[in-house]
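Troubleshooting: if your tokenizer reports a length mismatch, compare your output against this known-good record of 411 residues.
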Amino acid sequence: MRALILKAILALVLTFGLLTLRAEAQTSAMTALARANSEESALVDQGDSVEMMLRVSQPVPFRIFTLDEPRRMVVDFSEVDWTGFDTDAFDTASGVSAVRVGGFTPGWSRMVIDLAGPYALVHAQMSRDENGAVLTLNLDPTEADEFALHAGTPPDAQLVRRNSDDTTSAPRSARFGEGPLRVVLDPGHGGIDPGAEREDVKEADIMLTFARELEDVLNRAGRFEVTLTRTADVFVPLETRISLAREAEADVFLSLHADAIAEGRAEGATVYTLAARASDTASQKLAERHDRADLLAGVDLSATDDVIAAVLMDMARTETVPRTDRLADSLVKELQDSVGMHKRPRLEAGFSVLKAPDLPSVLIELGFLSSEKDREKLADPAWRTKAAWAIRDALFRWEDAEIALQDKLRK
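Known-good structure output:
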């Protein structure tokens, strides 16, 4: 009975959310794409202050907020084409350490301004002229504690868009053995967030390559239906990755990464499951870096759940956690037998992409780009194929075990 009540409540929550998102999508569809011109734009010092003048071909809706640790200002647009925009020529302000631009999520574009110190936004205006429009921002120095006090993601930061013809359905229970296993592969990072980088190797690139190879291996096996959260070098917010998994009605979610550590040595693959507290200090640092990708782009999921939502998620996890643990154990066994793993192959951390309460989700660190040995393995197509086969076999083993357990419970 409790499970039926939980499903009904979750269905109502999802229905309300999808209706809201449809309304937002219809509104954003009315806005034509604007083009940014770096030659007629500038980000310059004005004494102790900083002024930004951004030339766009037409006025567009925008939103601004600041984030701390590290300090940055985020400007969202609906929507701007950044093609040919030269951020180096645009940024000539000593008060700014870097500028990144790119697509954020369908219907929205984003500019992230890394601040060299604490600045407060004192003026923002989009003014129209005969050549289009200019967004003017004025930033004045402020105290560090004052900046931190006003920094944070606004309540409406979840800018996930869906098509207006989407249909809403209630969350479905596991249906192992009734058709192909629906697997969502999540190649980490992308776009303005390249992830770890060593010797011209970017985590975002190598994980997208592996995800495509793994997709091919699973499709050839004939028992899987595979979806990727991204198929190009684009930024996908963490919460959007989970939304895409829900749209695909996923049975399992695999997030793929290859991180790097600044100190010490680490080699080999590791499988992570969700924990409120990390297994060790290294796990906690990795969690902070993975989630920093979304903080970098302006989305912080740490304060999105109210008390009721937290209770509902805890209820859902009572069933999901054991299934996730069995999945992780299966992955560890097959990867260990096939390509070898880290000395501690099974760990826990608070990765945001693992927080879906009703979806078995694991994060696989295939290796560390900070390790020359691991970089060589990750660059080797034959090694990647063996790793993909191991993941395929682990999913076979896990699904068969879940079907057997499901049948046993029915008797």
